[in-house]
Amino acid sequence: MNLKLGVPSKGRLMEKTFSWFEKRGIVLSRSGSDREYAGKVEGIDGVSLILLSAGEIPRELAAGRIHLGVTGIDLVHEKLPRWEQQVEDISQLGFGRADLIIAAPACWVDVDTLDDLDAAAAAFRKTHGHRMRIATKYHRLVREFLTDAGVADYTLVDSQGATEGTVMNETAEAIADITSTGETLRANHLKILSDGLILQSQATLWRSRVAKYSTTEKSVLTEFLNRLR
Amino acid sequence: MPNRSQIQARAAMMRVRFEAAGAQVVDTPLLQPAGTLLDLYGEDIRARAYVTSDALRGEQMLRPDFTLPVVQMHMNEGAEPARYTYSGEVFRRQEHDPDRANEYIQVGYEVFDRDDPAGADAEVFSLMALQLRGLPLRAATGDIGILTAAVKGLRTTDRRKAALMRHLWRPRRFRVLLDRFAGRRATLEGRDALLNAADPLAIDVPMIGKRRATEIEARITALREDRDTAPISDSELVGLETLLNVRETMPFALEQLRDVAVDLPQITAALDRLENRIAALQARGVDVERLDFEAAYGRTSMEYYDGFVFGFYAEGRPDLPPVATGGRYDALTRQLGNGAEIPAVGGVLRPDLMLEIEEAAV
What we know:
The structure holds two protein chains of two kinds.
Chain A lengths: L2 E6 L2 H12 L4 E4 L8 E4 L4 E6 L4 H7 L4 E5 H7 L3 H4 E6 L5 E8 L8 H15 L3 E5 L2 H11 L4 E5 L15 E6 L3 H5 L2 E12 L1 E6 L6 H14 L1
Parallel strand pairs in A: 1-4, 1-5, 8-9, 8-10
Antiparallel strand pairs in A: 2-3, 5-12, 6-12, 7-10, 7-11
Chain B lengths: L3 H17 L3 E2 L5 E3 H8 L3 H4 L2 E4 L3 E5 L4 H11 L4 E10 L11 E10 L4 H15 L5 E7 H9 L5 H9 L4 H11 L9 H6 L16 H15 L6 H12 L1 E3 H14 L4 H16 L8 E3 L13 E7 L9 E5 L1 H7 L7 E6 L1 H11 L1
Parallel strand pairs in B: 1-5, 7-9
Antiparallel strand pairs in B: 2-4, 3-4, 5-6, 6-12, 7-10, 8-9, 10-11, 11-12
Helix pairs in contact in B: 5-13, 7-8, 11-12, 12-13
């Protein structure tokens, strides 16, 4: 069997991953049409390319269905509890950089820190009768971060997209989301809390600690990793 | 490892003993409405309890403990005074330690009684100790009521006291607040400019979101008031710090706390209650001379307790969770009682851990 390499199936993340490997003599490409999610690998034998949504790659690595995978640190940390035991961080690829942050409305002139957010949340709950809502899709990371910081009286509401718009629409009071330039935050009149950085993420190549490696697969893996040095 | 039927047999036996002590057997649904639990514990409960849902009843949680449903049941239909016992599964989500059980049996004993709280504390503790007799365990005790009394009696604003009370359960945040109120922390950069501004809301960003301008103004007013409030005095601060560090056997702990009461006279009534409890424990045959008391015990893990707290731990097995825990939760009955309240104290045992320790000792 071939060593299975999972790569994001779309967009800039896929293109940048392809060119990162190409610089190291491994040519990945989509076979057939643009719509077909099959791929091929040239420049090394014994490796198959599996095109997947970046969000599913952590799960596939943890299940051992792929041996290697490219996806963001944010997704691995969010989706895999005790991720260190399930995957190994092989190489940070230097693109797809983004920060997971907590942002509040820019008009909250009294809120600069988590400490302020906590105080505002207490008053908010008293005034409105419900806890301050923070919209996010990173439930575990955000909850652990806020618990650690001792923030209370908040509730996480799920937002799988257009999270920056939830404050204006009054379905949330603050957000926790990924940002790279901060442009979308500014356009939606939000500001990052000064101590609101939860995680710095970038595209990373991971190896599954769970997957089974046959003797052939092991030697292909060694060869593959040597090529990346 | 003990098997399920052994654990159930042990649980049944212990429940019978609690019945013999005068408790009525109760049971509660496995599925609890998530709203009540979320109100009580906040978002943190999601990390500890399994959540499920249907379109009709909305979010439900698999019972993470019995105390809450038993209190609700008592507040709705219970006669006074009441003693209850139960045994059944509780469920705890585990994300960090695969060795910790996510489903286990608890056997509990709860007392709702207005007379003689010290006697009720001692009753619960000694009944637990009796069930655990012969096991190599160490008991720890504490009293959240002493710290609460100390904070409520500080010579500072109600707002500061409320902020400290709110974070009593989060030692790190409590410390930060205390340092700030004592003037030991530098003010935030830019904060002075904000508070000195004639119109802090004169900004060129639109007002968005459900938190309105009046709420922002109210907080700025509060921040201004706080800036102009004198710091918490050194003697009170030292008193609080000494209090939190008290860790002794019960009689010596009381003695040290009486010294603290020179700086913090507001804890005197709480110390009298501790003294009565020590006497009540002694009357029930508990060796208080060798019973540990830590003033900070129970601060991180026992949110709804507000008086006496205790736990029994396996000697030489720091990997195991406590075999028994409990305490007094008067405030919880107020919170869930819709205007009614009743002093209440109780505790739970883990038959699975008891059997595990027994097996290891053989």
